[in-house]
Design a protein that fits this description.
Shape: globular
Largest sheet: none
Strand content: under 5%
Structural class: mainly alpha
Distance between the termini: 30 Å
Number of strands: 0
Order of helices and strands: HHHHHH
């Protein structure tokens, strides 16, 4: 729903813009989230819940926009690959969850967030290069 609206607004740059935004946001979360949460620890529970909801929703909204847009575009070009896209997404989701737990246990959750930021920066860079190659 929202990914289609953003796609109309940003066109093929949507993946690049969202990836780069997430890279910045997740890296900022990695370096500043615990400091920020410490500032809100003395608030009443409903307000802490609201702050947590906003922080999680902001990242989750932008992370969730890629898959519907990718499925829509894949449906326009190669419908037979949609099942594979669902499978690859499921595999990456499970693998990413497991790796996030392993990294956070062995190092720190800050490392998980920074690595996620690097992953989105890499994805945004690939998207930018793919967009230029396609346009050329």
């Amino acid at each position: 729903m929202f990914s289609k609206r953003f796609s109309r607004l940003l066109g093929t740059r949507m993946a690049t813009v969202f990836s780069l935004f997430l890279a910045i946001l997740l890296t900022a979360y990695g370096f500043g989230l615990f400091w920020l949460l410490d500032r809100f620890i003395f608030l009443p529970f409903p307000l802490r819940l609201a702050v947590s909801f906003v922080l999680i929703s902001l990242a989750g909204f932008f992370m969730g926009a890629f898959f519907p847009e990718g499925i829509r575009r894949l449906g326009e070009t190669n419908k037979s690959m949609i099942g594979w896209a669902w499978g690859a997404n499921s595999f990456a989701t499970v693998l990413g969850s497991i790796l996030a737990v392993i990294v956070s246990i062995n190092w720190d959750f800050t490392v998980v967030l920074v690595l996620a930021g690097i992953a989105y920066l890499t994805a945004g860079s690939f998207s930018l290069v793919a967009g230029r190659t396609k346009a050329a």
